[in-house]
Specification:
The protein has 303 residues and is an alpha/beta fold. The protein folds into 2 domains: 60-134 and 264-296, Periplasmic binding protein-like II (D-Maltodextrin-Binding Protein, domain 2), CATH 3.40.190; 136-262, Periplasmic binding protein-like II (D-Maltodextrin-Binding Protein, domain 2). 44% of the residues lie in helices and 20% in strands. It contains 10 helices and 11 strands. It has helices spanning 2-56, 71-84, 97-106, 120-123, 152-160, 186-194, 213-221, 251-256, 276-284, 288-296; strands at residues 60-66, 88-94, 111-114, 128-141, 149-150, 177-181, 208-210, 226-231, 240-241, 243-244, 262-269. Helix 6 links the parallel strand 6 and strand 7. It starts with a helix and ends in a 7-residue tail after the last helix. Residues 1-27 and 35-55 have low confidence and may be disordered.
C-alpha cells in the first residue's frame, strides 16, 4: 500500500515539473517574440524617421539668373518657399533670358529663368525646359496717345523703321520713339519672333534699347510719342496697353490663344545636376499656392 502511494506521489511530482518547464518555456518564447517585435518596430520607426528627415531637411543655396519678366512672380514664390524651408536660400538676379540659359549650360546657376522657348541649339546641350507660367507681351504707349489698336504687321514696320510717324497709323503728326529691349532679353526674342521682325529687316538702328521691363515702362510713361513692349505684369496706369488685332492684352485672351503676343515662363536646367532644393523649388512653383502669384501679377497659370 505504501509502495503504491510512493509511486503515485512520484508520478504527480514528475508531471508537475513537466508542466512547470513547459510553462516557463512558453513564457520565454512569448517574451522573446515580444522583444523581437518591439525591436522590429523600433527599426521601422527609425527608418521612417530617417526617410522623413531626408525629405524634409532641405538646406543649401539655389541660384537663379535670367529673365526680368518673371521677377514679380518669382520673388513672391521665393519668399513663400523660403518661409516653408528656412534653411534654403534662393538668390535671383535678373540678367535676361539668354544669359540665364547660358548660365544653365555652363553650370553657373542652379536654374535659368527664361521668358521664351528654348532654341534647338540650347536643348541639344542637355537643357530641360520646365514651364511654371505663361505670359503675354503687351504693346504699350503713353496714356495720351490716340492710337488704341495695332496689327502685328504694323508693329513689324514700326520696329524695322518702315513706319516712323504716328500719323501713318491715324495718330498725330509726331515721330515715333521706338523703345526695345537688350539683346539677351527673352521678351525681345519672343516679341521679334511673334511679329516676324527678321522678315521685315530686323530692328531699326534708331530704336532706343534699354534693359529690363521696368526701364521700358518708365521710358514709355515719360514720352508721349513712344512705343514699347513689356510683360503683362508691368501694365499699370502709367502706360496704355494697345489691343493687338482687336484683341485686348489680358491673361484670358492669351490663354485662349486669341491674343497673339504670348510666351512661356520656364526654368532651364540640366536634370542630372539638379540639387534636391532646386528640384523642390521647381515643383513648388506648380502648386496652387505658388500659382496664385502668377495670377496676382497678370500672368497665366499652367493649369
Amino acid at each position: 500500500m505504501k509502495l503504491k502511494k510512493l509511486l503515485a506521489f512520484g508520478l504527480i511530482a514528475t508531471m508537475t515539473l513537466a508542466f512547470t518547464a513547459c510553462g516557463s518555456k512558453g513564457n520565454d518564447t512569448a517574451a522573446d517574440e515580444e522583444t523581437k517585435t518591439e525591436e522590429q518596430g523600433n527599426t521601422t520607426e527609425e527608418a521612417s524617421e530617417d526617410t522623413n528627415s531626408d525629405s524634409e531637411g532641405l538646406s543649401g543655396t539655389v541660384v537663379i539668373t535670367g529673365s526680368t519678366s518673371v521677377e514679380k512672380i518669382l520673388l513672391d514664390m521665393i519668399d513663400e518657399f523660403q518661409a516653408i524651408n528656412p534653411d534654403v536660400k534662393i538668390n535671383y538676379t535678373g540678367t535676361g533670358s539668354s544669359a540665364g540659359i547660358q548660365d544653365a549650360i555652363d553650370g553657373v546657376n542652379s536654374l535659368g529663368a527664361s521668358s521664351r522657348e528654348l532654341k534647338e541649339e540650347e536643348t541639344s546641350q542637355g537643357l530641360t525646359a520646365d514651364a511654371f507660367a505663361y505670359d503675354g507681351i503687351a504693346v504699350v504707349v503713353h496714356p495720351s496717345n490716340e492710337i488704341a489698336d495695332i496689327s502685328l504687321e504694323d508693329l513689324a514696320k514700326i520696329y524695322s523703321g518702315q513706319i516712323t510717324n504716328w500719323k501713318d497709323l491715324g495718330g498725330k503728326d509726331s515721330e515715333i520713339v521706338v523703345v526695345s529691349r537688350e539683346g539677351a532679353s527673352g521678351t525681345r526674342g519672343a516679341f521679334e519672333e511673334l511679329i516676324k521682325l527678321e522678315d521685315a529687316g530686323g530692328l531699326s538702328e534708331g530704336a532706343t534699347v534699354v534693359e529690363g521691363n521696368g526701364n521700358v515702362q518708365t521710358g514709355v510713361a515719360g514720352n508721349e510719342n513712344s512705343i514699347g513692349y513689356v510683360s503683362f505684369s508691368f501694365i499699370d496706369e502709367t502706360v496704355k496697353a494697345l489691343t493687338v488685332g482687336g484683341v485686348e492684352a489680358n491673361a484670358e485672351n492669351a490663354k485662349a490663344g486669341d491674343y497673339k503676343l504670348s510666351r512661356p515662363f520656364l526654368f532651364a536646367y540640366k536634370a542630372e545636376s539638379l540639387t534636391p532644393e532646386a528640384k523642390a523649388f521647381v515643383e513648388f512653383t506648380k502648386t496652387d499656392d505658388a500659382q496664385a502669384y502668377v495670377e496676382a501679377h497678370g500672368g497665366i497659370k499652367i493649369n
